[in-house]
Each structure stands twice: as C-alpha cells, then as structure tokens.
Amino acid sequence: MIGPRVQRLFAGSGTALRKRLRALGRAARCAALALVAALAAAPAQATQLTSISAGFSPLRLGSPTALSLGFDVRTPDGSLPSALTGISFHYPADLGIGTSGLGLATCAPAKLSFAGPQACPTNSIMGRGSALAKFQVSPEVSEETASIALVAGPPQHGYLKLLISATGSYPVQARIVMSTLLLPGQLQISVPLVPGLPEGPDVAVVRVKATIGGNLTYYERAHGKRVPYRPQGILLPKRCPRGGFHFHANFSFLDGSHTRSQTVVRCPRG
Amino acid sequence: MKALLRCALAAIALSLATQPAAALATHTTSVRDEGSLHFLSDEATLIVDEGPLSGTLPGRGRVYFTYNGSPNVTARFTIRADGGNVYGAAKCRLNNPNSPTPSFRGALVIVGGSGRYAHARGSGELFGVFHRRGYGLVVQAIGRLRY
After folding, report:
1. Do B45 and A99 make contact, defined as CB atoms within 8 angstroms?
2. Of A70, A258, A264, B10, which is most buried, counting CB atoms within 10 Å of its CB?
3. Are A165 and A177 in contact (CB under 8 A)?
4. Kind and range of the H or E element at B6?
5. E-strand spans in chain A?
6. What one-character DSSP code corresponds to residue A183?
C-alpha cells in the first residue's frame, strides 16, 4: 500500500517527478549533515571502564573503623586509558569522619609538595595508600607505582581539607598533590595531568587504593611528655543503612568521556 | 434577667482582665551556665556528653552534639536543675576544624522543660570547645529564661 505522501511525489509529469526527486535528495543530504554535526557535538562515548571498591576494617557497627576506597580504570581492548582528570566520590554522609579524631594538625600544601608527607606533622597524616600509573613508551606501555599519603591541610570555609600526595620514584621521580574538601558524604578531586614522554599521551592513573584511618600513630602531650596513641578512626553508625553502605563515583577523562561506578558494603550479619 | 446576666458576665470578664498573671510564666531571669562535660556515647556523627554545670542554674547538663564535617554543628541540650529540667537547642558554627580543640558558637533557644520549668522559653548564645581526641565538650550558655 502506497501512502498519500508517496502518491503525491509520483503524481504528475516526468519533469515534475525529477524536480521532486532532486528536492528529496537535497533534503536527505541536509539531514545527513545535521546528523553528523549532532554526533560530533554529542558527549564522547565512554572508552574507559571503571570500577570502585570500598570497605571498613573492622566492619562493626557502632565502632571506630578505617575506611578503604579504591578504583580501577581500564579499556576494553587493554590499551592505555585516557588520563583521569577528576573524580567525585560519594560516601554515606552519616560516617563520622568529622568526629574521627584524624587530622589534628595541618600541613601546608607547598611543604607536602616539596618535601613529601614525612615533612608534615605526624598528627596531620590521615591515611595511606598506593597507586598504579601507566604511560606510553612506544610501542610498549610502561607502569609505575606511587605511594599515597592522605594529609590534613589548612581548613577552607570551615571544612576539613584533605591533601592527597602521590609520590613515584621509579622510573620517573615525581610527586603530585591534590586537594579536596571533606564535605559531608562527598570528595571532589581534580587530578592534574602528568605529561608522559614527549609527543606521547599523558600518564594514566589506572589503580588507586587508599585507607582513611587504620594503622596510624599520633602524639599528644601528657604530664609534660610526648605520648603516642592510636587515633580513634571513623565512627560507624550503630544501625546499618537499608541495603548497606552505598558508595558511588563519577570519573572524568581527558578525552571528554565520563563514567560512573558504584559499590555497596553489605551490612554485617548479627 | 438578661440585663443581670450581661452585667455578671461583664464583671467576670473585667476581673479576669485585671487579674495579675500569676498563673502564667512570670519569672524572667538571665542565665549563665557553664561546665566541662565528658563523653558518654556516640552514634557516628552524634556525640553525647554529660557533666556538672555551674552558674545561674546549677545542676547537670547533657549535650547531643552533631558534627558531620560541615562547620554548621547542632547541639541539643538538657539542664537538670533543682526543681525541673530545661530543654534547648543551638545551631552553631565550628571554627578551626583541624585544631585538636575547635571552638563553636551560635544561637540557642529554650524550647521547654519540666517541673517548675515546664513552660520554659528563652533564647541566648551557646559557646563551646570540642575536644576531638576524647570527645569532651566545654560549654557555656548565656541567655534569658522565662518560666
């Protein structure tokens, strides 16, 4: 069955038909161009695959704990991922990070950047971790591990500030320092670009694992002496949220792509 | 008869209007209470502290202090004084969060009570210091109390 619009197109003399077909061709070309333009303007498709991990140690409701957060970045074909430019990490807002007793001193970002976490006050260290970065050494992909330190920085607008330093020593000796405010339930981190070899792509961070709290030693003065103690750590609520503790993260990459990953820490039994 | 009834009602209304408000809240006093409170329990972002209070309303105080990392902290409190309890709440701003002993300050309201303070109302300011190491609180409440 031919529709009325098609019937109208084929109606009339041969010359009229050719004119109509030409007009239709122009319309099709315009539509194709518009489609190409729209595809070019659309956000880039995710070429990176991401996953996040989270955990409490110990996982005991109502007790102080250490919070471990991590992420992995990879590509479907195993090639070098695009450089990470930002992460927005979301965690349950009722975790007692403000009441953790962590970060009782501050370290200046410039000091941390220049001399590393060992130059910062002991009571400013809030956690530790490690990272794995990859970079292109044509045609090979080389990798480097970095140690991560989570350090309390000078507060901003009344919020605790977390400085994240990543120090790599081999094959490239480098340190980058990132900062984020400890907003209730949220960490927003801008990741600076680390240039790879000349003409090559930027270094890609592919794995990070860090723990806030944990095995830390702080010092306090008691009766005129400097006494070591272990800081309390993050206080877990006495009741587990419905469905567990939910975490999610949004990742941004240099190629303009974005990904979102989530994970849940299940409620302990009993 | 109607005129007599109207007259009686008017007399009662007049007597009620001119009667001193003895049965209503009549006491208004300036309050200044302070104390060092020790940690009692916690619920992640909520710290519960209790301890002796000295000042205009001596007794014991219990504070439910909430700090989730935001500089806007809240404190609900109970003052157990001679003759009854006074209940209140405060919204404060915490300064120097990285300090071992950040201070906070904000407006407080008295929202009620029990016993002789059953109809307590009032307002004022709450000052305090939060000990991040041991979760103790040092608090000072200054305000006006009506009961």
Report:
1. yes
2. A70
3. yes
4. helix B2-18
5. 49-57, 64-74, 84-90, 125-137, 140-156, 159-168, 174-181, 186-190, 204-212, 218-222, 225-229, 234-235, 245-253, 258-265
6. B
> Angle at Cα A180 formed by Cα A176 and Cα A183, nearest 5°?
165
Which of A104, A160, A236 shows the shortest C-beta gap to B100?
A104
What pTM value is reported for the model?
0.80
Contact A99 B99 (CB under 8 A): no
Contact B44 A105 (CB under 8 A): no
Task: Please state, in angstroms and rounded to a whole number, the distance separating the CA atoms of residues A67 and A82.
Answer: 28
- Between CA A56 and CA A62 the distance in angstroms is 12
Contact B97, A158 (CB under 8 A): yes
* pLDDT digits (tens), chain A, 270 positions: 344 443 443 444 445 445 544 554 555 554 444 444 444 444 444 589 999 999 999 999 999 999 999 999 999 988 899 999 999 999 999 898 888 999 999 999 999 999 999 999 999 999 999 999 998 887 888 899 999 999 999 999 999 999 999 999 888 788 999 999 999 999 999 999 888 877 788 889 999 999 999 999 999 998 999 999 999 899 999 999 999 999 999 999 999 999 999 999 999 886
Residues 1-60, chain A: which have Cβ within 8 Å of B?
none
Place of tokens 């809030």: A126
Strand B103-113 to strand B84-94: parallel, antiparallel, or no bridges (unpaired)?
antiparallel
CB atoms within 10 A of CB B88: 25
Count CA within 13 A, CB hemisphere, residue A256.
Answer: 6
Close Cβ partners of A109 (under 8 Å, ≥ 6 residues apart) = A153, A154, A163, A177, A179
The distance of A221 to chain B (nearest Cα, Å) reads 12
Tell whether A182 is within 8 A of chain B (Cβ): yes
Total number of residues shown for chain A? 270
- Cβ neighbours of residue B139 closer than 8 Å, sequence gap 6 or more: B34, B35, B37, B61, B63, B75, B77, B126, B127, B128
**Which ipTM did the prediction report?**
0.75
| B135 neighbourhood in chain A, CB within 8 Å | 99
Please report residues of B whose CB lies closer than 8 A to that of A158.
70-72, 93-95, 97
Q: Which residues of B touch A236 (CB under 8 A)?
A: 44
